[in-house]
Give the backbone structure.
Amino acid sequence: MVNPLLETSKLKFGAVAFDRIRAEQFVPALTQAMTAAKAAVERIKADPAAPNFANTFVSLEATTAQVYDIAYIYSNLRSAHGDEAMQALAKEIMPMLMALESDINLDADLFARVQTAHDGLAGETLSAEERTLAERTYRSLRRNGGLLDAAGKAKLRALDEELSVLGPKFSEHVLKATNAFELVVTDPADLAGLPASAIEAAEICAKDKNKGKAGSWVFTLQAPSVLPFLKYAERRELRRQVWTAYNARAYTGPESNQTLVKRIAVLRYQRAQLLGYESHAHFQMEERMAEHPDTVRAFLTRLLGKSKTAGERELAELQQFMQEHGATEPLQPWDYPYWAHKLKESRYQLNAEEMRPYFPLGQVLNGAFACAARLFDLEFKPTSEVPVYAQDVQVFEVVHKGTGEYMGLFYADFHPRATKGGGAWCTRFKGQYRELDANDGKGAWVRPHVSIVCNFSPPSAGKPSLLTFQEVSTLFHEFGHALHSLLSRCTFRSLSCTNVYRDFVELPSQLMENWAKEPEGLALFARHYETGATIPAAMVEKIIASENFHAAYMMLRQLRFGFLDLAWYGSDPSGINDVAAFEHQATAATELLPTTLGTNISCAFEHIFSGGYSAGYYGYKWAEVLDADAFEFFKEQGIFSRKVADLYRTEILERGGSEHPMQLYKSFRGRAPDPDALLRRSQLI
């Protein structure tokens, strides 16, 4: 039987044959694809023609295409539907991928050919995208050991191989620690304050987990369970237990990541040093808009200076509010979600549970589609003609309404399961690029297959999945990432879609959130799931008015993550012994609430230890500046202005990483971003 991971898809849209893929097929498929990739590299090296753009950079671009098509399918399934067999494969697959990368990056003959081709670029007539491909390919080989001697290459290979195993192991520990905790409630009094939706979900969870007799409820550390519990549960001691468990994930016990975080940080530092960089942060910043860690520190410090006093004032007001309502204890971290919600509700007369009926998941998704239609002429048509990897995954064919052009496939995976990681993300099963014709280079466009993965509460007892407003924002955020891929129109897959600098990649996602916070945007989808009534104008006004509630506190929370990330990667971490003490020192300036013994951020901080955000978490705030500035442009012209939307599509979304992001932004906006735009939006200046 032909391995479905290796054959050309015969399915409509060239869809992935999820119904035929099995865990045991990945290693054989990768082995065969890697053999072909190595042979292709050998052919490039043996080419007797003088090295140039076409026979070196374009040819090299294609060598590992099949390898990474398979690897993306694996990594996506491991994150979204990773049973034990799929998780276990990481220990074999990740070193295989890293070994191939090392073989290519450390090949002296290949680097010599690339360098010759790079030196000759001045004599070739190339587009901006072609020059970017050449520069990024050359720089990637240089940054991954191309200039090292034999001993240095051997050391780099060993570092990379070890790192390739530690990242997946870190994530596996976090997932197991998340799944290990359950709060089993048998006394109805312990449910005081919780909304009916949370109680019903906990009852379903108890039945699913076979916790016995009726009248029991199970709360977990999955987002749809833990967030409402901390927000609404009146029993302070139970809130403390749940909050502590969530913030102690993978800190102690059999799934502890303390050794791993130190080892990962040290290995990345050693790697940077070997390559001639002061630290891992210096290495990473070379390919970031910020360019240098000092720029990031100054950026974060400026935001801290504008936020700290306001944050202290916000918490002082919250403590006073607690006392006025009979709570005499000092404010603790597990108190914040509960009392902040009550204060927000009191101040704005905005009841989060009363809002949920206006945000049924299906309607919110259709609202995102409607925004894409008005801005970019996209249509999302549901299809059942392609397989899915889990029963509740939906698939949509995306077309351009004006031209009828097929733009890609969109997968939507919205609900928790034991095999899915926490949080929300956007990814691709297939990239976007243009097939290169041997004669004129103008082959067919290959369109992307994009997926957004979330953890929203599932439907229950005749009710659809009803989202909180925060979850509405999350859906729009991930949808913004999806649009970045679906509208991509690049020739080279390594430059297309979201293959952009890490501190630029969050611009499309964060910008998209704005349409869920404007009356015109909400009017497209916010209707009561039972009556069909449009969300009341007064409620919309309250949503807008409350948007900056505790803006300083939320700013400080993100700055805490940013400073912690920079602390781990901005200098030599080899002297770190106590993870908790190091973390406290790194984040002390941002902290407004007491530190709780036995809890830790680092040990579950997947973004920077197993994701792609090491020395890059500041990028969320950096991109918020771009987002705030860009949306001011939309608001000046109208939030559905086709003039601005067309500029945004052609100068940013279609262009991927084909040029430096600052140049792309200037082409869209007509100038550099205004650094005060975020502070204006947050009303901190």
Q: What stands out?
A: The mean pLDDT is 95. The longest helix spans residues 293-324. The longest strand covers residues 406-413. The CA atoms of residues 20 and 449 lie 18 Å apart.
